[in-house]
Amino acid sequence: MQQAATIDIASLTKKYGDDAVAVDAISLKIKAGTYCCLLGPSGCGKTSTLRMIAGHETATSGDIRLGDVVVTDLPPAKRQTSMMFQSYALFPHLDLVDNVAFSLKMKSVPKAERRAKALDMLKLMHIDQYASRRPAQLSGGQQQRVALARALITSPQALLLDEPLSALDPFLKVKMRQELKRLQRELGVTFVHVTHSQEEAMALADLVVVMSNGRIEQAAEPREIFHRPATAFVARFMGDHNVLAGKVKELDAEGALIEAPNGASFRIPGADHLVVGETAEAAVRRDRIAIGESPTKGLGFTGHVRNVEYRGGSMKVTLDAPGVEDFTVYAEESAFDSAPHEVGQAVPLSWSLADVHVLKPTAH
Ligand SMILES: Nc1ncnc2c1ncn2[C@@H]1O[C@H](COP(=O)(O)OP(=O)(O)OP(=O)(O)O)[C@@H](O)[C@H]1O
C-alpha cells in the first residue's frame, strides 16, 4: 500500500517568456488521500500547474511541498510523484509486464522481483490476462489501464493525471472514471487530475479547483461549487446558474435591489461587500425558475423565448430580455408539456429570494 502525501502549493507562478503568465501566484493545499481535480477552460493554467507538481516544468516563483519535503527544485524522479500522460506513452515493442516494470528496471530492481510486482499491478488493474500482449493488441481503455499500472508501480505518494479520460469514447469514459475512483479509494494515494469537463470533476473529486486565467477562482467540494459558486466565472463555467449583474440601487434589511443595464432590476440577498452604486453579481439556479408565473417585483422578469432544446427529462429554454443576457431555464418535461412555450413568445419568469446566491467580486 502506498503512503499518501499532502501537496502544499504556496504562491506558485509560472511565466513563459517575459509576459505570458500561465499560473499566477496560486496557493492550494491538497490533503493526503484527496482526489483533486484541476478544472478550467483551455489555457487557464491547469496543465502547467500539474507539470510543476510533477517536476516536468520549473516554477518561476513560489514553492511546492510534498509532505514535509520542499520539492520545488527536485527532478521528477526524486519527488515521490508519478505522472500518467494523456497519450499513455507505452513502449510498442515491449509486452505489458515489461512496460509496467520499466521504471523498476531503471532502478536496477532484479528481474524476477520487478516482473512479479508488474504482474501485481496488472492484477490491480484487472488486465493480468493480457500480460504477454503488446500495447497495439489492446483497446484504448486497456492501454490506459497499463499506463496507470506503470505510473503506480513505483508506489508514488501522489499520482498526477493529465486529461486521462479525454481519448476515450463516452461510454468507456464513464467506466474508466469509476475505475479511477475505485483505484484511488483502494490505494488511498493523493490524486491530482486535470480535466476541462465539469461533469468529470463533479463525479470524481473530493476537491474541485476551478481555474481561470492562471488563478484559482474556487477550491471546494463539488456540492459547495454547485450550490455556492464563489464567483460569476464559476457560476457560468459550471453551467447550472444564470448570472444577474448590475449596480446596487438600494440596500435594506432583506438585501439589495440591483439595476441591470437597460433598466431591469432584481432583488438579491444581503452580503457584506455590497455598496450602493457599485457593481453586484448574483446567481440563480437554472432549475429553480418557474415559467408562466408572474413574478413578485424584482424576483423575475418577462423574457422572449429564443430557443428550446430537449435534455431528456427536462427542457432547456433560453430567453432574452432587455438587460439580461443568455438566461436559461431548465423546465421539467411534464410541466413544460402542460403549458408549452414557442420560440418568440413572451413569458413571465419568477424565482424566490432563497434561490438567489450573491457572488464575490471576481479576482481579476
Ligand atoms: N511551453 C510553453 N511556452 C509558452 N507558453 C505556454 C507553454 N505552455 C503553456 N503555455 C501558455 O500558458 C497558458 C496556460 O497553459 P496550460 O497548458 O497550463 O493551460 P491548460 O489549462 O492546461 O490548457 P489546456 O486545457 O488547453 O491544456 C496558455 O496561455 C498557454 O498558451
TrEMBL record:
Its main location: membrane. PROSITE patterns: ABC_TRANSPORTER_1 (PS00211), ABC_TRANSPORTER_2 (PS50893). GO terms for cellular component: ATP-binding cassette (ABC) transporter complex. It is found in: Cell inner membrane. Pfam families: ABC_tran, TOBE_2. Gene3D superfamilies: 2.40.50.100, P-loop containing nucleotide triphosphate hydrolases. SMART domains: AAA. GO terms for molecular function: ABC-type transporter activity; ATP binding; ATP hydrolysis activity. Residues 7-238 form the ABC transporter domain. PANTHER family: SPERMIDINE/PUTRESCINE IMPORT ATP-BINDING PROTEIN POTA, SPERMIDINE_PUTRESCINE IMPORT ATP-BINDING PROTEIN POTA. Belongs to the ABC transporter superfamily. This is ABC transporter ATP-binding protein.
